[in-house]
Write a structure and sequence with these properties.
Layout: H1 3-37, H2 63-74, E1 76-82, H3 89-95, H4 101-109, E2 124-130, E3 135-144, E4 150-158, E5 161-166, E6 172-181, H5 186-192, H6 197-206, E7 222-232, E8 235-249, E9 252-260, E10 267-270, E11 290-293, E12 296-299, E13 306-309, E14 312-315, E15 321-323, E16 328-335, E17 341-346, E18 351-361, E19 370-371, E20 376-380, E21 390-397, E22 400-402, H7 417-437
Antiparallel strand pairs: 1-2, 2-3, 3-4, 4-5, 6-7, 7-8, 8-9, 9-10, 11-14, 12-13, 14-21, 15-20, 16-17, 16-19, 17-18, 18-20, 18-21, 21-22
Amino acid sequence: MHLLDITKKIFLGTTRKARIVSSIGLFLAVCAFGAVAVAPGAAEEEDLPTRIVTQELALPDISNQIAEFETQLGQEYVREERVLSGDTLWALLARMGVSDPAAMTFIRSDRTASQLLRLKAGRVVQAKVSGVGELLWLSMEVSEGRAGEAKDIVVTRNENGFIAADASTALEKRIEMRTGVIQSSLFGATDAARVPDPVTSRFVDIFATQIDFRSDLRRGDSFSVVYETFWQNGTYIRSGRILAAEYVNAGRPHQAVWYESQDGKLGGYYDFNGKPQKKAFLKSPVAFTRISSGFGVRRHPVYGYSRAHKGIDFAAPSGTPIKAAADGSVAFSGWKGGYGKMIVLKHWGSYSTAYGHMSRIVSSMRRGAKVRQGDIIGYVGSTGVSTGPHLHYEFRVGKAQVNPRAIVMPEAPPLRSAELEKFRKAAEEMEHRFAVLNPDFKPVKVAKK
C-alpha cells in the first residue's frame, strides 16, 4: 500500500473516533447540566441575596423636536381651491392639506354640512387648516340665494367638535387695507403684509394685461390693496372682492378701482380716469411661468431642424391652469395632430387665440361655449408633438399667426358720462384710503381739456 493511502486511512479513522468521543462528551455534559439544575437541596431563586441599585441615566435631549412640533401645531394656513370636474370633496380637501377623519365624519352626518358633498365645477372653496392637517373652518358656495346673494355653507371647529351654518346672512363684512415692498416675490411680500393668498391671486388677475408678474417684477416695487373680508362671530371666514389696488412697477404706477353700476349690468376695474384697467388680451395665459420658445424661426426640439415657430411656448408644470386670453367663444376643442389636446377661441373681429399640448380640457369647453377673459379653459400638458410639459400659445389675426408681443392690443371703451360721475364718487373714497396707506400716494389722472 502506498504511504499516502496509509496516511489517509489513519487520518479518516482517527477523525471518526474523534467524532464518537466528542459526541459522548457532549451527551455527558448535558446530563451533568441537567443534574445540577434539579439537584435536591439547591438554593431557590427567592433565597438568593438581592440588592437594589439606583443609577441616573442621561435621557436624550428632545426639547428641539418638541418645540418644532408645537410650532407646527400652532401654525394655520388659509387655502383656496376651485372645484374641478369629477372632484369629490375628499379629493378637494386633500389638495388643501386637510387630513381630519373627524371633520369628514361630521360633514357626512350633519344635515347642513352634507350640502358640501354636492360639488359643482368652478365653485371656489376656502379652508383654514392647522399645521398638522386639522380642519379649522371650511366655506363653500352651494347655491344662489335670494336677491342674488350667494348661499355659503360654513363648517367651523369649536371646543365641542364642529358646527355648520348657512352663512349667507350671518357674515360681517370688513374692509382691510395692506401695503408692502417687493424683496424677492409678490407672494412673499403679500405674506409679509398678511394679505391672504386668494387676494394676491385676484391682484395678479387685475393687472394681468399690464404686468407680466413672471418677468416684470423688480426689487423695490411696491403694492397697496383695499379688499373685503367676511367674518362670522369674530372668526375670519373668507376674503371678498378687491375694491382698489395699486402696483408700482419700476417707478410706474398701475392703479385700479372697482366700480359696479346700480343695475349690476356694468362692473369691472378702472383707473382713476374711468378707463378700463384690463386690455383686450392677457399678457400671458399662464401665470408665473417662463417663455421657453419665442415667436420666429427656431430649431425644433423633436424634428431637429430649423422651422418657423408661429407661437409662444410657456414652460410650466403639468396641470398648471390655462386662462382664456380674452372674451370669446370656443371655435375648436379636441385633438389636433401635433398640437395634441387643443382649444381655439374666437374673439371679436378677426382675432382668435389657440392653446396646444394641453393635458386636459375643461369639460364645459365645447364648441360654441362662451368664455370670459381669465376663465380656466384647460391645463398644461405634453400631448401631441412635445418634449415636455408646456403651453403652445398662438395669437391669430384672420388665418395668420402673429407675435402678440409685437402688436398694440385694442382696449375696451371707457365709462360714459352718466356712469363716469358716479364712478368718480367711488374713486374719491378709494383715493382717501390709499392716502391713509401711503401719504405720498397720487392718483394717475389725465388733465381735463
